[in-house]
Amino acid sequence: MPDEIRRQLPDDVVDELLAGARTEEEIFGPGGVFGQLTKRLVERALEVELTDHLGYEPHQEPPGGAGDTRNGKGKPKTLITEHGPVQVRAPRDRDGSFEPQLVRKRQRRFEGFDEKILALYSRGLSTRDIERYLRELYGVNVGRELISRVTDAVMDDARAWQQRPLDDVYPVVFLDAFVLKVKEGGSVQRKACYLALGVRINGERDVLGMWFQQTEGAKFWMQVLGELKQRGVQDILICCVDGLTGFPEAIEAIFPKTTVQTCIVHLIRRSLRYVPRREYDQLAKDLKPIYTAIDADAAWQALETFDEKWGKRFPPIVQAWQDAWEHVTPFMAYEPEVRRVIYTTNAIEALNRQLRKAIKTKGHFPTEDSARKLIYLAIHNAVPQWTRTRAWTKALLAFKIQFGDRLPDTAI
Hints:
The protein is of the alpha/beta class.
């Protein structure tokens, strides 16, 4: 490939293009070689488009001696590119039927520039910050109104994404929520952003949707699960949740055969709330034999041992584990490699951490739609580690053995 490029663009041509330019500013900066080359390429491509439209080359007679003809060039217009502003003049035809595709009429930004605005916005930059960044880096003045229009156009994509059809079966679905602030009715309100993260049969993780509500609650989660069912989900094998009261009942109402797994990490954190810092490490160490036990019976014995040592001092801890026991132990039916796939909502929390990075610069959002827009972009811009599931082949085989026909044969 390098030799082919060298043949197409010999060194003497490159030297002529550079024409003595040596510094980064002279080559890549506003008005530099790249900008001039962009102008020349765009105008030449537009001339070729017009030739295709008319059906004959410049300086030739129209076929049949009559018909549409070239009519000079239009007024100069400034095109915003990643190498700064470039002034181009599009060719015209006499009857006005020519519609250029490379630079459409009234287009002011070159292909890819809107994506740069969206990438900056998805990282939590405000319209003011984006405006300053584009001015400093590219030497172009992009107003906040234009930036808002570019980002607002994402809402149609976000709505389509929220309503898209889903898979029939998800081996694992993680449900969680995080809190943000949204201005509503003249005052700033705390709202929960609900997320559902599904693991598909091929092991890929996919955010199934987002929902907003005043507070996290099991009743609203039932609505979320109902919507997933309407969008095509027929079965969820295992649903991993954070231990919210009423959550298992909400899941059972919509997907009665689903196994509910309480997040062990959430339960450990809740347990350690009651512990003085000086005893934090020791108590955490004594909890470990419970959730690393070989099976549910061994885990119960470990809980009894923990109760003998700590129960009198910290009865709420033992009570919390006992109350959640039915939904603590399902993962213990699997080997250690499979347990890591399902025993914790860390998968969705890893995504949440990236989303929080995007929204941490926002004191609050002016509207719910503005929050939805940013989170949607941040999900699609997130670092891809959260999309991969480790040891998935082994987990899938274990699920097939455990759940039988509920997992399609095509999965293995």
